[in-house]
């Protein structure tokens, strides 16, 4: 069944089919919310906000119109608004700085040094993304992680397509600039005052 067919059936009263919609999108929405919360060190709220997103979507499903946007775009918009609402609530609350991010497990054929370097690189990229302004971070995550097209991202963020392209361009430049010192390998040149022979 397509999303449209499922939604039609749910609107007709087959509410048990909503679990299928959740199954299709839960992992992606949870990952998106997690990334949006990471810079504020609020990742522990990700599962609750994911559940809240699906609850809000269910309650508003009767007003969903496929003419306006696809279900996934509509769902991401609800997720983003739910996260922004939570971030506004949490601004005045002190939250402990806990690092509970996912770290890839190295396969057994990788030597420990390689696994450590890979983990360090992944963490550096995440840190760079988390330092981005909210709209740049959201646009980059939706494009790179969720493989959405510019029009979908524009709908979710309430921006024009050209504004989304600009956000993504600036986000990529910022990430690249943040990572350059880390990945820069100096070329050994002759030191000043040394004579070549």
TrEMBL record:
User: Domain RNA polymerase sigma-70 region: where?
Assistant: 21-91
Q: Which InterPro entries match?
A: RNA_pol_sigma-70-like (IPR039425), RNA_pol_sigma-70_dom (IPR014284), RNA_pol_sigma70_r2 (IPR007627), RNA_pol_sigma70_r4_t2 (IPR013249), RNA_pol_sigma_r2 (IPR013325), RNA_pol_sigma_r3/r4-like (IPR013324), WH-like_DNA-bd_sf (IPR036388)
Transcription regulation recorded as keyword: yes
Keyword Ligase recorded: no
Q: Which domain of life is it from?
A: Bacteria
Limits of the RNA polymerase sigma factor 70 region 4 type domain = 124-172
Per the record, the similarity remark reads:
Belongs to the sigma-70 factor family. ECF subfamily.
Q: Name the PANTHER family on file.
A: RNA POLYMERASE ECF-TYPE SIGMA FACTO (PTHR43133), RNA POLYMERASE SIGMA FACTOR (PTHR43133:SF51)
* Protein known as: RNA polymerase sigma-70 factor (ECF subfamily)
Native source organism of the sequence? Paenibacillus turicensis
